[in-house]
């Protein structure tokens, strides 16, 4: 689905000026219809899926207890 710069900025929670800058830099792919830049928002699906996976991995890491050191009672 194609959306305008303003709609895309709202959807991905980013300022319009930043989205426009990314479009002009080629970091966000778009189509220019002579008046507006139109962005296919499906290009963000993989990014958001990877972001959710990373968030899950961080939560698992944060909740993993630290193992006790086996050398704590080192008696020589």
Automatic annotation (TrEMBL):
One of its GO terms (molecular function) is DNA binding. Keywords: DNA-binding. This is DNA-binding protein. The lineage of its organism: Bacteria, Bacillati, Bacillota, Bacilli, Bacillales.
